[in-house]
Amino acid sequence: MEFTREEIKKFLQGSDDEYLFNHAKDIREKYFSNEVYLRGIIEFTNHCEVNCNYCGLRKSNDKASRYSLTDEQIFNCVDTILENGLGTIVFQSGENINDDIDRLVKIISNVKKEHDLAITLSLGEHTTETYKKLKDAGADRYLLRAETFNAKVYEKARPQRKLSDRLQCLENLKEIGFEVGSGFMVGLPGETLDMLADNIITLTEMDLDMIGIGPFISHPDTPFKNFPSGDYLLSLRTIALVKILNPTANMPATSAMESAKRGGRLESLKYGMNVLMPAVTPSDLKSNYNIYPGKNTYIKGDNEIVTIKNILTESGYTYTGARGDSIKFKNRNKY
Ligand code: 5AD
Ligand code: SF4
Question: Given CB 3.0 to 4.6 Å as the disulfide criterion, which of 153, 202, 272, 319 pairs with 149?
Fold first, then answer.
């Protein structure tokens, strides 16, 4: 590893922001130039059977207005993604053990039969059997954030859940042959700077294809409502460090950075992030995918893909709808 734990901690404390951000920018440009991969995301249901203490979609949040897209609505979203020239579809939902998987399997097979595009899933923890079914149907990639690699912070944030189970899921996904993504939130209640440094190290050791990082954003309808949101600058330093240590990983810029500071999502593209995932979820439902305040509410206009393309061009980025497969994965599987 390029940095020791002590060095990582010092950078997190702001010991040399100039060096850190310049170095991260160089690495980002070396591997990804000024390009941004666009992936269309379909948040097909906001039902969730889990009770994460930080998330607005948690099962016990009665204020959440729940929806589930029909097959027809999902295929319309797929069409929108294709019409706008994007080569990856991301299916995301809460974690629902008992339904939706078989339906999704059918949808994935259908889409893959007719189109040459990559499919990414973000559906939480499932059995190996379920993961295999989804892979066999044609899914290519899977995102499952660890949320934190510290067992104590984890158990406080996700009651009745165990970090070891989540890590096992990540191993299973890799074993099955998915491109795998993980990540964590910065500033979950109880997290110290030492723990954050450890999160960065553990994440790097996992040798991931995709990495998602964003600040914890305090949500008023959750048990964590009285805890402060994660710090913006600390999150940006974390992103820069993770980029330096994981140069080839694809890193989606999330709107949590935007919630922490206006313009934050764009700024995170400078220092490491190279993927944006415009939501094509129907506009009347999109704001119900309310994981944290600000999610899905910044991008105006009916077609988020068009809006994001315009913002990127204005900001000097080149966007691409190419599949943008993981460089690491290709090398690992030698084709
Ligand atoms: N603040 C920031 N990120 C959150 N997520 C869930 N709730 C919050 C929150 N309050 C993130 C988690 C999850 C992803 C879908 O959204 O990391 O994995
Ligand atoms: Fe459900 Fe995921 Fe939110 Fe947890 S973070 S409550 S699993 S949607």
Answer: 202
204-221: pLDDT as tens digits? 999 999 999 999 999 999
Q: List the residue whose alpha carbon is closest to atom 18 of ligand 1.
A: 145
**Cβ contact 289:295 at 8 Å:** yes
Q: Which two tokens stand for residue 278?
A: 């415009």
Ligand 2 centroid–CA 94 distance in Å is 5
Q: Are 144 and 166 contacting, i.e. CB atoms less than 8 angstroms apart?
A: yes
Residue 296's pLDDT is 67
Q: Which secondary-structure segment (H or E) carries 114? A: helix 101-114
Report the pLDDT value the prediction gives residue 189, as an integer from 0 to 100.
98
- 113 C-alpha to ligand 1 centroid (Å): 32
pLDDT digits (tens, 9 = 90+) for 126-160: 999 999 999 999 999 999 999 999 999 999 999 99
Closest CA to 43 of 303, 257, 294, 282: 282
CATH number of this structure's domain 5-323: 3.20.20.70
Which residues, including other chains, have CB under 8 Å from residue 13's CB and lie 6 or more apart?
193
